[in-house]
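User: ok so my PI wants both of these folded by tonight, can you help

Assistant: No problem, let's get them done. Here's the first:
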Amino acid sequence: MLHVYGIKNCNTVKKALDYLTNHKLDYTFHDFKKEGVSDEQLKKWEKQVDWEKLVNKKGTTWKKLTDEEKEAVTDAVSANKTLIANTSMIKRPVIEYTSGLILGFDEDEYNLKLK
């Protein structure tokens, strides 16, 4: 079973969930807004992807940070602290599947990895 992490009202997450539902793929959903994220979870993901890929620097949450706050994100430890405090800054969705981790929505990648 897939485990999907994200925010329900995020358009990218909606696309991913629609894809999974339409392709009859079983998943559980973890809502960052309601359930947050732990440092342990972030460290687990960082064993599979670089910490920088988890930080969504294109989103409004990142853009709202002060320059000092942005400059303080220099490694996994500082990034995780910021991501725990600002879960909407995590690249979404994060999908855990049997062979690894997928970040974001890319139909071609889903077709390749989730079938």
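One down. Here's the second:
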Amino acid sequence: MQTFLQKLSIKPKNAGVSTGQQQWTSTGEEIESFSPVDGKSIGTTTETTRKDYDQVLETARLAFREWRLVPAPRRGEIVRQIGDALREGKQELGQLVSYEMGKSLPEGLGEVQEMIDICDFAVGLSRQLYGLTMHSERPAHRMYEQWHPLGVVGIISAFNFPVAVWSWNAMIAWVCGDVCVWKPSEKTPLTGIACQQLIQAVFARNEVPEGVSCLISGGRSVGEWMANDPRVDLLSATGSTRMGKAVAEAVGRRLGRSLLELGGNNAIIITPEADLAVAIPAIVFGAVGTAGQRCTSTRRLIVHTAMYDEMKERLQKAYAQLRIGNPLETGVHVGPLIDQDAVGGYLASVEAIRKQGGSFVVEPEVLSGADYESGCYVRPCIAEAENQWEIVQRETFAPILYLIRYETLEEAIDLQNGVPQGLSSAIFTLNMREAEQFLSAAGSDCGIANVNIGTSGAEIGGAFGGEKETGGGRESGSDAWKAYMRRQTNTLNYGRTLPLAQGITFDI
């Protein structure tokens, strides 16, 4: 166990503040990271004090003055080297992600692969930060727009993807010419420290200014500093809808920019023309992967009445084959929840389901015994429910799947859309008309809508994000880079006169 920690330079006590080569232990309260896998302490760091925070922000702002002038392809080359460093450290970092967060090792390694993929994407993007040229209504004038670096990008990441979501923001921000201040989740601080140490080795070789990549540690109060700080030009926050609303309010008061990736309540629709051999693995992985702690986890399964009984039987057989245990072991499908509070949320939701009249197709259980000594292991469960129930309307970050009936496709789409969140959605059908209806303006209202693949997981080439209470933000691919830059419209007069717009004359 200690081998990969040592390779990542993770110690019993770790510096909680970093602006690059400068790393120091703040005088704030100690943050201890316990693995949900076995309940053991991995290491500690310290919460950033306000004094240290201000020092970090000033260092970042000074670094921006230099970094913005580095040509974008050169910035891309440095990100390419980060990708190579991640390839070299993939096994160790993936193990740390799995051990500190609790997801299976293949998922931990897959998360690091996402980081590598976004590096590759960002390298290409560094030569494609395109603007537009427009025809002017005035003679001898040229109009165009260009994109400039924004400044300091603050990143608040969540425990469930402790490194990937940070990289979606940071790699794009860096090639755009921004600098980053990252606050990892206080539940997974050591993965953040490992990433900072890895990239700083690359930055040192390339003489990148101190402060282009900064790390701070802490909980809600540190996040509030970032949200209220006008020195943070863009705040990208991933977490619960409740947290996102607080961030949006604080940033909005100062007319700042925010990029929000919040809760999901994702559904899969199963029509009579679905290929169940394809659908079942997608449903099960979507519902139990990362122990149901993905924002894209499948929460609701909306099944046509004609398929309902068969679907219950198939899911019971599939769930009976799930292996729950140490996520670092080969063949384990489901690891632990992040902590005891998450287990409490699971139990509270189970109680609410029963109070509202739900029955369980696969029974819930908190697992105990030598193999589950951390007390964070639960059995993925399936409940028959109604879409309008309060418990179904909100997101529970645990492996609970709701089975819901429907009669017509229009009803199914209304059920799919009938929740406050709008992140990911899917339909399984071999009927082209059903698929196109789901993808049309009258179909899914989510930021992600899939056909014959599940809700969970996304490729970095497409912009990731959702609508409604999911926050409206977009990260990763497509033109999501524009969120990290400021647009400037330019008009250049190369003539010998000054014609005014709309034919106005102004003789002096």
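The chain has a mean pLDDT of 96. DSSP finds 14 helices and 25 strands in the chain. Good luck tonight!
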